[in-house]
Design a protein that fits this description.
With 344 residues, the chain is of the alpha+beta class. Helix content is 51%, strand content 19%. The longest helix is centred in the middle third of the chain and has 23 residues. It is elongated.
Length: 344
């Protein structure tokens, strides 16, 4: 991006702020009257013309005003925003909300989507955290329920607990189930699902059946997490004039409902580091479906253990300062909660 003069930077920033608020083309007269820059309307108009020539503003139809281009928004985000942070009172309120819900991942994910959508007035989503490496076996319990049914309680390293009911070929006492669990704990200690599968051939038939079930539970744990997407704030899209046209709104709704498309976008653009915020503006990406939208994204969690993704989607006329600050804060808060819950 070429360097702009201090005055051009100021005018570009003001045009974008006014356009985000008003959703109508901004004229030089509006800038002069609203901000009292100490320069004439003609001077502002000339600077806006230069910004248009440089590709930062555009002149829609026959309107006397101008609107930002993707290039203008990008300059604003990278050069004019600086560091952004939510007000302390709002950060305390959000943190308090998280400590009010049950300490369960499902509750945190639902609350995260709600907080993001409300604070950014956009559509928000968050994916459940998934292990970045194969999870390791820690402990197994076999508990007799009745007759030929037993409860398999699996604990993975990192604290995840999974349960499954197992149908036994014949009734087995709790004492024998406990002895079997002890033998399996010795055999499976610290193994991955693949490692457990490699042990099955040397086990007794019922122990091998339990081992196969344990490996399946470990494998499905991460697959299920990656498929879980929590959304909130779809109504916010309908309130934006850019999406008043039904076809555009339906297209956006379709994208948000299509988990596979979201996975592709996240895989292409997400930085590996947790906490870093990325902004995709309009047509910058290779996805034509998102040409009318902007995305603010972040990864949360512990990179070497378990991570998820969160973000907000809105029109290109997005309040970027607000969106970036709330995405960054919720990402950091979710990372803290995962650390506390799993002991990473």
């Amino acid at each position: 991006m070429e360097d702009l003069t201090a005055r051009q930077q100021a005018i570009l920033g003001l045009v974008i702020r006014e356009y985000v608020a008003a959703a109508t083309p901004i004229s030089s007269k509006v800038i002069v009257e609203a901000y009292g820059l100490g320069i004439s309307s003609a001077t502002v108009r000339n600077e806006m013309a230069r910004l248009e020539e440089a590709g930062y503003l555009t002149h829609p139809h026959t309107s006397a005003g101008r609107v930002p281009t993707d290039r203008g928004y990008r300059y604003f985000v990278e050069r004019l925003l600086g560091e952004t942070e939510l007000p302390l009172a709002e950060r305390r309120m959000i943190r308090h909300q998280f400590h009010q819900v049950r300490p369960e991942m499902d509750q945190w994910l639902k609350l995260s989507a709600s907080v993001l959508a409300q604070a950014a007035q956009s559509v928000a989503w968050i994916t459940a955290p998934a292990a970045t490496t194969q999870r390791l076996f820690k402990h197994l319990e076999l508990i007799s329920i009745r007759d030929s049914l037993a409860l398999v309680v699996l604990v993975l390293q990192g604290g995840t607990v999974k349960q499954r009911v197992l149908t036994l070929p014949q009734p087995i006492s709790q004492e024998e189930l406990s002895r079997m669990a002890t033998r399996l704990n010795e055999n499976f200690d610290g193994l991955t699902a693949d490692g457990i599968m490699a042990q099955l051939a040397r086990l007794a038939p019922l122990e091998a059946q339990v081992g196969e079930l344990v490996a399946e539970m470990m494998g499905l744990s991460d697959e299920r997490a990656r498929s879980e997407v929590y959304r909130n704030g779809l109504i916010n899209i309908l309130q934006q004039p850019e999406f008043a046209e039904g076809q555009i709104a339906r297209q956006v709704f379709g994208l948000l409902d299509e988990s596979r498309f979201l996975e592709i976008v996240l895989a292409d653009v997400m930085a590996p580091a947790a906490g870093s915020v990325q902004v995709i503006i309009g047509g910058e990406g290779p996805w034509e479906e998102l040409s009318d939208c902007s995305l603010v994204l972040s990864r949360y969690g512990v990179v070497s253990q378990a991570t998820g993704d969160l973000g907000v989607l809105g029109p290109r006329r997005m309040p970027y300062r607000r969106a970036i600050s709330v995405v960054r804060y919720v990402s950091s808060l979710m990372s803290e909660l995962i650390h506390e819950l799993y002991g990473y």
